[in-house]
Amino acid sequence: MRYLLQRLGFYILAFLVAVTINFFLPRMMPGDPIQSFLARLAQNGGQITPETVTALESLYGYSSSTPLWQQFFSYLYSILNGEWGISTRFFQPVVDVLGRGMLWTLLLVGSFLVLSYTLTTLGGIWVAWKRGSRIDSFVTVGSVVVSSIPAVVMALLLYFIFASDLGWFPTGYAYDPALDPAFTWEFISSVLYHLALPLMAMVLLAMGNIMGMRSNMINQLGEDFIVMGWAKGVPDRNVMLNYGARNAILPVVTAFAMSVGGIFAGSLIIEIIFNYPGIGQIMFQGMVARDYPLIQGYLLLMTLMVLSANMIADVLLLALDPRLRTAVL
Amino acid sequence: MTALIEVKNLCVDYITLNGRVRAVNNVSFTIEEGEILGLAGESGCGKSTIAFALMRLHRPPALISGGEILFNGENILDFDEESLRKFRWKDTSMVFQSAMSCLNPVKTIEYQFYDIFKAHGAVASRQESIVKARELLNIVDIPEERLFDYPHQFSGGMRQRVVIAMALALKPKLLIMDEPTTALDVVIQREILQKVYQLKQQFNFAVLFITHDLSLMVEFCDRIGIMYSGQLVEVAESKAILTQPQHPYTFGLGNAFPTLTGELKAMTGIPGMPLDLSNIPSGCRFAERCFKASELCRQTEPALHYQPERGWAACHQVLPVTARTGQDIPTEDVY
Amino acid sequence: MKKLWYQFKEFFLNNPKAAIGMVLVLGICILCFFAPLFTDYLPNARIARPHEVPSADHILGTTRMGRDVWSQVIYGGRISILVGLVAGIFVMFMAMVVGISAGYFGGIVDNVLSFFTNVVMVIPSLPLMLVLASYLDQVSPLVIAVIIGATSWPFGARVIRAQTLSIRNRDFIHAAEVMGESRRRMVFFEVMPNMLAILGSSFISTVIYAIMTEATLEFLGLGDPLSVTWGVMLYNAQQTSAIRIGAWWEILAPSMALASLAIGLALVNFSIDEISNPKLRAQKIMAKFRREQAKEDKARQAAISTNKALEGVA
Q1: Which of residues 283-322 of A touch C (CB under 8 A)?
Q2: Is residue B51 part of a domain?
Q3: B touches which chains (3+ CB pairs under 8 A)?
Q4: Continuous H helices in B55-154
């Protein structure tokens, strides 16, 4: 229990650090959001009154009259209360704007996690089993090559070929806009159809995980308990899964926790290129409009996602590794 | 007694990028039912390779390149995967060197017993497996409530006893013990060997015991085979190995260990290094390090010959019966 | 010299992956850094009508602005590669300083540095970069390199820390310590040389990562739209709806350049891993083993069938 509390403490601290960065960045940066907003307003011939300035200051959460530490705590207070500011692009609370895209992002990332980790884990086990064979070198080199293609390039090429040119897949949206969201096969199949290509791009990009599982597996195959499994006359498949893979999966869980940030970053690019209406897409619209509250909200949300993934991984490791359980509980 | 296992001209090669290296060369021996045969030799002499080859558990890059291994008259090298799987543990089981790492760290002991029974169709239900596993833990003196513990919760000696209990789960005819006690301290070593001996009396299985500890081996085994660089150089009754060695290498090994009984003598080693197996000279492999080596030894490789009353030895210069006790080879001068 | 050349040749013959990777990387570098030799056009000159289809004159066609795509690709590669290198060096430097000090000095130094590393690691780097870059408005490639460097070092630092720890606990380091070697000497002459393979491979992965990330940031419109890099080319192509009007060359050219460089570097990296990691090297022996085993099985099968035939005769 103490171990879990320790981890939780670390996550809370890490979140505070992210909040602090969010707080100080705009105050340190040369591009003061208020000044730049005022400049843009002036350019467009808008009226600048002291009221506009105060309104902007309260919008961005700072004012020249209160001391910095007070600003920080009130900022922290509002963050914890779910008041992440008002989006200057959508004129709605940041939390609502991000929440709208979250469903689709979670659908994309969630199905990616399930599909990709199943594929690469099974693939890794399989090629480790066949190591040294032709199929092994083909899969290993193939996965290195495919996964080293930059996400932008992969997404653009898939989009260009399969969506734009061949027209096999839709060029945007999460479902056919003509349909009403409902729990019908028609709607669900439309969602899946729109999901397919972005999902495929993400899965291809993560093919490199096969290599990780493969080398974990090869490391395990040298262990004595694997040989003992064979000596016991346990069928091959059983030895591979219950002895080899069962142990080789442990480092994968740790690696998963570390790569979650990268996965969301990948989904950002994919959503933008495939016009998929997740938070990445929303973030992009905010970024083009220099919607700072939204951009900062996005950073906080991503930090929260990574931290939750780490927490899940911690619990998962405890469930999977009895040695760790004995050591820390 | 009849031969339980008969090994004929077994050869095992290691595949390296620079060609094959023969780790076990033309080794033949038999183990009778209920007999304890020991295999001794320096590390790297191929004794563990033989142990693994007997169950066809040798791992790549090791490759059996010749010979036969007859178990009750059947050549296990001709077995297909399925009959091999059934043969393993049911007929021959094994206690590994590293009790620390030969149990699956993420599964309970109970599961690892169940695995054995299930693989060989020995139980009808998990419940039956648990009952049997409890009995087995009892015979190796481990409290049965520890059945549901994980391997890391046991001490080294206990873990080795768990492994022995597992090895006996299917009442095999042959138990291979590959340096089973090297990683344990001396007191526990003895406890475990006594336990195995007692169980052997009870269940009458044969044992192939592998170690480099000759004094331990002499007490425990009926017969002992001595290996040098992949070859069997001497096989004899265990007492004869120590008291009347025929091969100079056996003689040297006997000097390198203190006996537990008898007078205290200066311990001496064998000069030189074990042979580099990728560069084998003609003639006797031990000639370079042998105090009796002659021109003949350097040119012709000796074959195993049977000496009446003494056993088999592969040597041109077989030592006299009195070598150990007599005055003709004063050990201090030789080494 | 001849011998060196021979060894070189042997190495690449034995490692076709490394050879292909090196050829890709060197080829792209030569094309980019000697760009004027390979094109007559300047990357920013309007030299033709917009969106011309590839032809003998403009082998990769032209952009919306009537610029030669081929010359943009090879000139643009210069900056992309340089950004990758600068960011790579920056990241490696940070990772080495943090990782080696944490691993070598241990104790409170390790605790503080590890905590710091872990915190930066759980703050997702791309969003952080986006926030930084958007505050700085459109930024030059050099600033992008610095931003990448500042946010991407923790992973390397962790790997290097773990490696330092394992080297630190080896006998020869203890021996050197007992003999009274100074700490600085120890770090530079005992610890670092033992990590060359891992440093080399993390440097290359960082360069790949930096090149990809630079392209991403620029593609998202955070770069300077007037500079010529692969990322900006993609951005411009996207902005001018190259995809919709079927100007495939405008997308394909920088994409292929980026992908080839990344694949080339990844293959080199893969080979380094293969050579320095004995477990992966064992794969070659495994391949040989499989061949030998097949031979052996065949011989055995043949022997069995002759035996059966003989029995039949008898």
Answers
A1: 283-284, 287-288, 290, 292, 295-296, 298-299, 302-303, 305-307, 310
A2: yes
A3: A, C
A4: 81-87, 109-119, 126-139
Task: Scan residues 113-152 of C and list those with Cβ closer than 8 Å to A.
Answer: 115, 118-119, 121-128, 130-132, 134-137
Cβ distance C304 to B78 less than 8 Å, yes or no, reads yes
Nearest by CB to A148, from C221, C266, C283: name it: C266
Interchain pair C286, A131: CB under 8 A: yes
Query: What is the pLDDT at residue B329?
Result: 47
Instruction: Please report, for the domain that includes residue B214, its CATH number.
Output: 3.40.50.300
Range with the lowest mean pLDDT among B170-179, C50-59, C282-291?
C50-59
Q: Do C279 and A222 touch (CB under 8 A)?
A: yes
**C1 in contact with chain B, both atoms CB, cutoff 8 A:** no
Domain count, chain B: 1
Cis peptide before A30 (omega within 30 of 0): no
Q: Smallest CA–CA separation between A143 and chain B, in Å?
A: 26
CA of B75: which chain C residue's CA is closest? C304
- pLDDT, tens digit (0-9, with 9 covering 90-100), for A23-34: 887 777 665 666
Q: How many CB pairs under 8 A join B and C?
A: 27
Contact between B15 and C300 using a beta-carbon 8 Å cutoff: no
What pLDDT is recorded for position C130? 83
Encoded tokens for A84 = 């992440």
Nearest beta carbon to residue C123 from set A18, A218, A287: A18
- Identify which has the larger pLDDT, C289 or B125: B125
Q: Given this model, what pLDDT does residue B112 score?
A: 93
Lowest mean pLDDT among A239-243, B155-159, B292-296, C278-282: C278-282
Using the Cβ of C45 and the Cβ atoms of chain A, whether some distance falls under 8 Å is answered with: no
Give yes or no for residue A176 having a pLDDT over 90: no
Over residues A76-85, mean pLDDT: 82
| Residue B15 falls inside a structural domain | yes
Query: What secondary structure does DSSP assign to chain C, as a single string?
Result: -HHHHHHHHHHHHH-HHHHHHHHHHHHHHHHHHTHHHH-SS-TT---S-TTPPP-SSSTT-B-TTS-BHHHHHHHHHHHHHHHHHHHHHHHHHHHHHHHHHHHHH-HHHHHHHHHHHHHHHHS-HHHHHHHHHHHT-SB-HHHHHHHHHHHH-HHHHHHHHHHHHHHHTSHHHHHHHHTT--HHHIIIIIIGGGGHHHHHHHHHHHHHHHHHHHHHHHHTT-B-TTS--HHHHHHHHHHTTTTTTT-HHHHHHHHHHHHHHHHHHHHHHHHHHHHH-HHHHHHHHHHHHHHHHHHHHHHHHHHHHHHHHHHHH-
Q: What is the pLDDT of residues C92-132, one digit of tens each?
A: 888 888 988 888 888 888 888 888 888 888 888 888 888 88
The minimal CB distance from B63 to the residues C284, C289, C304 is found for C289
Domains of chain A listed by start with CATH number: 19-80 (no CATH), 102-328 (1.10.3720.10)
Contacts C292 to B, Cβ<8 Å: 13, 15, 20, 63
Question: CA-nearest residue of chain A to B163?
Answer: A228
pLDDT digits (tens, 9 = 90+) for C52-94: 677 767 676 776 776 777 878 788 888 888 888 888 888 888 8
When pLDDT is cut at 50, 70 and 90, the band that residue B325 belongs to is: low
Residue B257, pLDDT score = 62
Q: Residue B242: is its pLDDT beyond 90?
A: no
Q: Mutate one of B94, B106, B149, B154 to test the A interface: name it (highest A CB count within 10 A).
A: B106
Q: Each residue of B293-316: pLDDT tens digit?
A: 788 888 888 888 787 778 888 888
What is the distance between the alpha carbons of residues C16 and C294, in angstroms, rounded to a whole number?
Answer: 25
Contact call for A133 and C155, based on CB within 8 A: no
